[in-house]
Amino acid sequence: MNTVHRDTPHTLWSTDLAQPPAGPPLPIADLLLAPTQERGPTAQHALLHALILAAGGARWQHSFEYALVTGLAAVQTSEVSETSEVLALVALASTDLLRGAGALVALDAAGEERYRWAPGVQRVSAPAVSGGVACFTADARALVLLDPASGEERASVKLGTSASLSAPALADGVAYVPCRGPHLLAVGWDGKVRWRFDAPESGAVWLDKTPVVVGELVFAALTSGAVLALRVEDGALAWRADVGPAGKRLSPPVADGERVYVGARDGLHALDLGNGRAAWTFPTERRIVAAPVVAGGVVYAACHDHHLYALDAATGRESWRREVERRIEVAPVLAACGSPPTTCAIVADRGGALTAIACPLDAEELETRARSLEEADCSDEERAEAWAAAAQALADLGARERAAACQEKVARWLRQPVIRLDVQHEGLVLDAWTRLQFIARNEGYGPARNLIIRASGDQFQGQVMATQRIIRLEAKGESADWLDVRPREYGDSVPLRVSVEYQDLSGATCVCEQTIYISVAQTETGRGAGQTHHVRLPATTHVLSFDRLSPLDFERLCLWLVEGEGYVRGEHLGLAGSEQGRDVIAYKRAPDGEELWYFQCKRYKSIGAKTLRDEVDKYLALAEEKPHLRPAGVVFVVSCAASAQVREQVGDYCEQHGLEHEFWALTELDMRVKRYPDLLQEFFNLAL
C-alpha cells in the first residue's frame, strides 16, 4: 500500500509576457516580479513585470533603457512590523557603452524607485542578500557590499580575477564569488580574501555559476561537467564528481543538507554531500540548464523538453510532471498563489509565458489546507471540496477515523445528514425469534429522506429484513423501528450486516454499511442480558466524478442538462475551448419572447475570474460579427468550485456588459444532474 497520497497538478493561471525571460521570477509580498528582455541581436531594453500572485494579472511594469536585468533579490527594510516593507533589488548591466549604465535599483511594492546605486560602472552582477548586507560584483573586478534598506555603500573590495554576472553565495560573513575562469574566491565582508581555488583544468574552463554552501563545504559546478566540493575553511578540494556527458555545462547546483542536485545535458543528478557519489539520476531527453529547486523533500527541475518535473529528493522517483508550450531555461520558483492560497511552482518558458502550477498535496497537507479554509473568505462548496479531498486521501492511507472526521466536515458544509444507529435486543437464542429495535439518529446538518434500515447475513433468518421507509428524518431527529430475526448460528460473536440507505436533499442515494457482532445463546437457559450496539456509520456524500468524463461526454452531459432545465433548441455553438470542448447555446422563455443564453461548459480542476472573463469576451466578439447571437446571459457550467471572489468579479464583469449570469459549479452542478435519473445512468452508471 502506498504511504503517500497526492492529488494531481493543474494550472492555476498563465500569463503571456510576450518577451523571453531575462532570469527567474521573484515572489515579493503579494506580487511576482518577472524580468524580460527584447528579442533579437540588437535588443537593448529590459522590462520588469509585476504580476498579482493570486491570479497572474498585471499590477505594474518598469522599463530599463539600454540595460539587461542580471538578477533580482528581495530585502526586508527592517524587522517585520506594520512599518516594515519589502524592496526588490534589480541588478542591471549596460547594453550600450555610451547611453547605458550598470546599476543596482531598489523598487518598492508599487514599482517606485527608492534608491539607485550607479557609480559609473557598466555591469552589476545578480545580487545576494544575507545578514543585513546586499552583495554583488561591479564590472567583474570589485565586490560591493551595500546596506540593502538604504543603498549606502559599506565596502568595495578589488578582486584579482574576473567575476561572472552570477550572484555570490553568502554564508557566515563570507562571499563566495563565481568567476569567468577556473577560479572561486572566498572574500570576507571585512574585505580580506580568505582563499582562492584554482581548478587544475587547462583551457576555457569556468566556475561561473552561483555556488551553494552547506555546513563545512561549498559546492560549485565547472563548465567542463564536474561538481566540486571545497572546504569552507581553506578552499581545499574535498571531492570531485564528473556529471553527465564529458565537457558539457551543468546547471547551478542546489543542496538540501543530504544531497547536492545539478542539471546536465542528460538529466538531473543527485550526489551524496559527503563523498560526491551518485545517489540517483533522473534521465531526460533534453538538457537541464536551469537551477533546480528543492523544498519539502521534492526537487523541481525545469527542462528544455518543455516539462517541469517534480521528483522525490531521496530516490529521484517522479511524482508528477507538467508540460508548457516552450522550453524552460530559467529556474522555477515556489510561491502561494490563488484564492485560497495554494503552493505553486511558477515557470517561465522561452516564449515569455508564465505558468503557475498548483503543486499536488499529500494527505497531511490536504487536511491542513481544509482546516485553513474553515475561517477563510470562500464558499461552502470550496470548504466541502477541500475536506472531501482530505477524506479521500486519508482513506487511501487506511486512516479511517481521520477520514470519517473529514467526511463529517463535508456533510456540515453541504448540509448533509449523518446517521447514527443503535441496535437493541433482550438477548438472542438459536432458532428463536427475537425482536431487534433500530433507533436511527440524524446527527448531521440536513434531512435524510426515504430512509430504510436493512439487516442481512447467512447466520440470521427474518420474516422482513428491512424496516419501513422513513419519509423524512430531520437533522437532530430520531426514529425507531423493529425487525424480527431468528439466529441460525450461536456463539459470542455472530455477524449481522446492518445497512442504512437514504437520500440527501439533492436526491443522491447514500448507502452506509457496517457489521455488528451479537452474542447468541445455544439454549434458552443461556440467554444473555439485553444489549445495545452502537453503529457509527460514516458520513457519506456523493459528489459525482465529473473529472472522469471525457471532454466530449461532459459536453454531451451539459447539452442534456440544459434541455432538462427548461431551455429549448439547445445546440453546440461551435467555438472550441479548452480541451477542444464546444459551448452550448439555448433559448429561455421570457415574458416578451425568448432569450438567447450561452453555456460555457468545461471541466476545470480550478477556475479563475480571468478565464471566465475571457469566455465572456469571446461571446461578445462573436455577437459583434453576428448580432443575432447577442446573448441575454451566460451560464458557467464548470466541474469545480467557484470561489466567492471569482463569482463577484465575473458577476461585475457581466453586469458591465449588460449580461445576466449564473453559476452551475461543482455541488450546484451535482445537485442539478441528480434530478435526472437518465443522466446518472447514461454518464455515471448510477440509478436512484
Can you describe what's shown?
The structure is a single chain. The chain is mainly beta. It folds into four domains: 10-359, Methylamine Dehydrogenase, Chain H (7 Propeller), CATH 2.130.10; 368-413, no CATH class; 419-536, Immunoglobulin-like; 546-684, 3-Layer(aba) Sandwich (Trna Endonuclease, Chain: A, domain 1), CATH 3.40.1350. Helix content is 15%, strand content 43%.
Average predicted local confidence, pLDDT: 88
Beta-strand content bin? 35-45%
CATH superfamily of the largest domain: YVTN repeat-like/Quinoprotein amine dehydrogenase
**What is the helix fraction of residues, given as a range?**
10-25%
- Give the distance, in angstroms, between the N- and C-terminal Cα atoms: 33 Å
- Can you tell me the residue ranges where pLDDT is under 50 for at least 5 consecutive residues? 1-6, 576-581
With strands numbered from the N-terminus, the spatial order across the biggest sheet is 37-39-35-33-42
Number of domains: 4
- Structural class estimated from helices and strands: mainly beta
Q: Please name the CATH topology of the largest domain.
A: Methylamine Dehydrogenase, Chain H
The main sheet comes to: 5 strands, antiparallel
The rough form would be described as globular
